[in-house]
Design a protein that fits this description.
Length: 364
């Protein structure tokens, strides 16, 4: 057990012991499951006599989350030991993730997919803390609704969310992403071929990338109309320059010795480009594609604030905020976050298949 794990185990058990002592001041039958968790957390201090496996810490963390969620509404006002129990459950979750990551690093547990438990546990911990704090602390829903309320809104508004997703992501984001990245890649090839274009287009691309979205979006709406083409145009502007810069840098990544070797084989420019320079630029190109996968979604949503039909993620967020329907706003944010994450993950998976030879991919 590392020093950090030791301190986490001691603090988690100590907090549960203190909370258990305070909970004895309340009737025994109230919050019985929560008191059982506090007792188990206190007994975990026996790990220094009989070592406990990392899965025991994970089970205690899950038990604590269930106990906290089922005890919501039992106490009014919320007592201090309830908040101590929340801190204790969080520390047990942290201890489990810390021990599991340490085990995976030393290949003690090398099962396929086991590493996914770390982000899953981290995400669930955030959701539990969010739910408990907002409900037990009586946080106004206008300020921050609990995840359960957001989930209920998502289930009740699936047709609306799907229509917004189609308008924003499947049209503006994807079309603008393909056009912006493709245009940036082609211009990078032209710049690499011509020193004149390199001196003229790179500063112009830098200028375009510095244009603020809030200033460009209304102009694109005036040029291309209120529907998705104007949002796709904003996405093109946002994704063009990252692809241009990264591709130009990647094309210069191959060494002089490698280029000299290609010349000794009588390879022309296009043969050198296709067989040496573009493969070497692969990591740079995919780096731009991953950056643009998030920039495209942000650009499309922000652009919809400045004129759009009565559909779209940005339109829904701006209108529902005005109506104080904050749960619907968070539902749109959740859909956008999931879509952006899946989009990024898809690009990353393609990168692993294409640039499998790169040390960063081999090391992963």
């Amino acid at each position: 057990m590392s020093q950090l794990q030791y301190y986490l185990a001691v603090v988690a058990g100590g907090i549960c012991a203190a909370a258990l002592g305070f909970s004895l001041l309340t009737p025994l039958e109230s919050g019985l499951l929560l008191k059982a968790f506090l007792a188990v957390g206190t007994l975990s201090l026996l790990r220094f006599v009989v070592p406990l496996g990392l899965w025991i810490d994970g089970a205690i963390a899950v038990f604590g989350a269930v106990a906290l969620l089922t005890t919501l509404g039992v106490y009014a006002p919320t007592p201090a030991f309830f908040w101590l129990a929340l801190v204790g459950a969080w520390l047990f979750s942290w201890l489990f993730v810390e021990r599991l990551s340490h085990a995976l690093a030393w290949r003690i547990s090398d099962s396929a997919g086991l590493g996914l438990l770390i982000p899953v546990m981290f995400g669930l911990t955030i959701l539990v803390i969010w739910e408990v704090v907002t409900r037990a602390g009586n946080v106004p829903q206008v300020i921050l609704p609990p995840p359960s309320m957001i989930g209920a809104r998502i289930m009740a508004s699936l047709p609306t969310l799907w229509a917004d997703f189609q308008q924003t992501f499947l049209k503006a984001v994807l079309i603008g992403y393909v056009l912006g990245c493709g245009l940036g890649f082609v211009v990078a090839i032209l710049i690499d071929r011509s020193p004149f274009l390199k001196a003229g287009l790179l500063p112009l691309g830098n200028f375009v990338s510095a244009l603020p979205i809030v200033g460009v979006a209304p102009i694109m709406v005036m040029w291309f109309g209120f529907d998705w083409p104007s949002k796709a145009a904003v996405v093109v502007i946002m994704t063009f320059f990252p692809m241009l810069v990264n591709t130009v840098a990647g094309l210069n990544a191959s060494s002089v010795i490698e280029r000299d070797l290609m010349r000794t084989y009588a390879a022309g420019y296009w043969q050198t480009l296709m067989k040496l320079r573009l493969p070497a630029a692969g990591p740079f190109i995919f780096n731009a594609l991953k950056i643009n996968s998030t920039l495209a979604l942000i650009g499309a949503i922000v652009a919809e604030f400045f004129g759009t039909p009565i559909v779209g993620m940005g339109f829904r967020i701006s209108t529902e905020v005005g109506r104080m329907n904050v749960d619907m706003v968070w539902a749109e944010i959740a859909v956008a976050a999931v879509a952006g994450s899946v989009f990024y993950a898809g690009v990353a998976l393609i990168e692993r298949g294409v640039t499998f030879w790169h040390p960063s991919v081999r090391g992963a």
